[in-house]
Each structure stands twice: as structure tokens, then as C-alpha cells.
Amino acid sequence: MKKLLCLLLSALLLSAFAVAEAPLPEDTNTRLSQPPVSDDGAQANSITLELEGQRIELPFDDSPEYSSIADGVVQASFYAYTSGGEKLYELYILFPESARAGDEITPRGAAQDGMEGSVVLIVSDVDSQREDYYFSSVTSGVTYPEESDFLICVDSIEASGSAVTYAGRLTASLVALDMSTGEVVARLDIPETAFSFTIGQTEPDRHASPMPSPLPDDMRKV
């Protein structure tokens, strides 16, 4: 799995701009339904979504390979396997390090301010090694895909020593592209859902949170 998501998004953008975007097929819409956000907000260091009919908690990955604060960008990674281990879901949230509590980050706002932001969901099939990328991104003042959108609400930021804890809410309308042609092949909507994560803890452990099932071949190492 690609570890430098910013480079991945740049490659996606470059390949997509090289070809014309195809119309979105009518039957490609998918919705990731999310139970109403509770008064307590998100469980610590996680985000919970209903993916393809399964309610899955995606624990935060505190490995600096996947989650970091660097070059003015906060990148948070959440991931989990389905209970049977057939699929791997990875959610990435990127927003400016300059964000403050109460900020609402959107593609248009980020573009106007010269900032960058992205929401990316990667769905990987363990057996076939197939990866589907759903994303909405703004980089160098350009939002892509044009039909995508996201809203990242930063509700609180707390610093403790070298660690920083972010909590907020995410809403997104993501678009999947054919990686070989750049054509739009699917859309996926994420209703408002709470998240929280802490970056900068000492001695991070990628698998501190128990995985749904043991797997001999972790696709995140691919």
C-alpha cells in the first residue's frame, strides 16, 4: 500500500487531467450510511462507518508511515479489515496544520486560502489485490474530481507534550476513477460522522488496536 498519500494524490490528479472525465453512470452511486452521531462524539482514536452493509470501526493508525504532521499538512489514517478478512478499508483525512478549533475545511475554502486537503477511502480486496480509490482533493488551488466534495469540521485541538489530539466531524462525497483511464466509475457518499485521533505519541504501535481477524498477509505492507 502506498505510504506517501500526498504523492499518491498528486499522481491521481496528473493522470486524471491527462484524459477527459467520463459521465458518471447512473448505477454507480454508493452510500456509506452512518448511524447518528452520539452526544459523546467519536470513540477515542477511531471513526466508525457502515461499509457495504457492515458497521466497521476503523481504528486510528498512529504509525508515522501513515499518520503525521509534516509540510504544513495533518494526515490521519484509519484502517480495518472486514470480519472475515476479505477486504481492507483505509480512510485518510488530510487538512492544513494551521487549522484551529471551530474551522470548517472545504475544497473551495482551501483552494481560496492556498491550502490543501483531501478525504480518501481505499477499498482493497485481499485475494485479488484489487484496490479502488474514492477521493476528493484540493491541491495547488484545484479541486478534483470536480464532482467531489468534503467538509471537515475541526471541533477541538488539544496539545499534551509532543502529542496533539484532534476531534471533529467529516462529511464527504467521494468519486472513484479508473486508474488507467482517469474516467469516473463510481461515487460514494459519507454522511456526517465523528472522528478523533492523536498524533505524536511516543513509540507508536501500528497494531495497538486489535484487528477483526488475524491475517497472514497484511495488504498495508504491499
Write the H/E string, N to C.
Answer: HEEEEEEEHEEEEEE
- Rough shape? globular
Low-pLDDT windows of residues = 6-41, 202-216
Terminal CA distance reads 5 Å
Instruction: Write down the Rg.
Output: 17 Å
Give the helix level as a range of percent. Answer: under 10%
Describe the sheet with the most strands: 11 strands, mixed
How much of the sequence lies in strands comes to over 45%
- State the helix count: 2
Structural class: mainly beta
Average pLDDT number: 76
The counted number of beta strands is 13
Concise summary:
The chain is mainly beta.
Describe the secondary-structure layout.
Layout: H1 5-17, E1 29-31, E2 46-51, E3 54-59, E4 68-70, E5 73-81, E6 87-96, E7 104-105, H2 107-112, E8 117-125, E9 131-139, E10 142-144, E11 149-160, E12 163-177, E13 184-199
Textual characterization of the structure:
There is one protein chain. With 222 residues, the chain is mainly beta. 9% of the residues lie in helices and 46% in strands. Strands 1, 4, 5, 6, 7, 8, 9, 10, 11, 12 and 13 form an 11-stranded mixed β-sheet that branches. It has a two-stranded antiparallel sheet with strand order 2-3. The model is unreliable at 6-41 and 202-216 (pLDDT under 50).
Quickly list its features.
11-stranded mixed sheet; two-stranded antiparallel ribbon; 222 residues
